[in-house]
Specification:
With about 160 residues, the protein is mainly α. It has one domain: Ferritin, core subunit, four-helix bundle (Ferritin, Up-down Bundle), CATH 1.20.1260.10. Helix content is about 75%, strand content about 0%. The chain has four helices and no strands. It is elongated, with a radius of gyration of 17 Å. The N and C termini lie far apart (about 45 Å).
Length: about 160
């Protein structure tokens, strides 16, 4: 079943809000973590979510004005990352509990957002639209894997492994 234009726009608008919320969450997490690897990962995730937001916004206006789906080429993590000064080990250990909380929340949100995009794949008749939502779902799955890896490492080893 092809979603009505207004229901597709509503779904995209909801996705835009979710992506902006994720961007804001990751930006705050990056500012709060004491670990340089954690900062880099959270900043990159914030950038990733902002790219999702920008594309969804462009898609929203394209559908609204012209009824056209636009191509989404995807987003990737930066290989080099941001150069952030390392802090003392004592401060890093003290912040781990907050980092684990942030990681736990982020994992749940990424899973929920991925599920939403997969539902949109099923509800969207347009092949370009399906492709957009599949790519977004795959990227959210990647985020969840990255976050799970960091959560595991921080819980079991007390170390961030991002970028290793």
């Amino acid at each position: 079943m092809k979603p009505k234009k207004s229901s597709a726009l509503d779904a995209i608008k909801a996705a835009m809000e979710t992506e902006m919320d994720a961007h804001n969450f990751y930006s705050r997490a990056a500012q709060k973590t004491e670990n340089s690897k954690g900062k880099d990962m959270f900043f990159q995730l914030a950038d990733f979510e902002m790219n999702h937001f920008r594309h969804l916004k462009a898609l929203y206006y394209s559908l609204k004005a012209e009824g056209k789906w636009i191509t989404y080429h995807g987003t990737t993590f930066s290989i080099e990352g941001k150069k952030i000064k390392a802090l003392s080990v004592k401060k890093e250990v003290e912040s781990q509990a907050n980092d684990l909380d942030a990681l736990s929340i982020a994992i749940k949100e990424e899973r929920k957002t991925r599920k939403y995009y997969l539902e949109m794949v099923q509800k969207t008749a347009n092949s370009l639209g399906k492709d957009i939502f599949k790519k977004l779902a795959r990227e959210e799955e990647l985020h969840e894997r990255v976050l799970n890896d960091q959560f595991y490492s921080l819980t079991n080893n007390g170390l961030w492994t991002w970028g290793d």
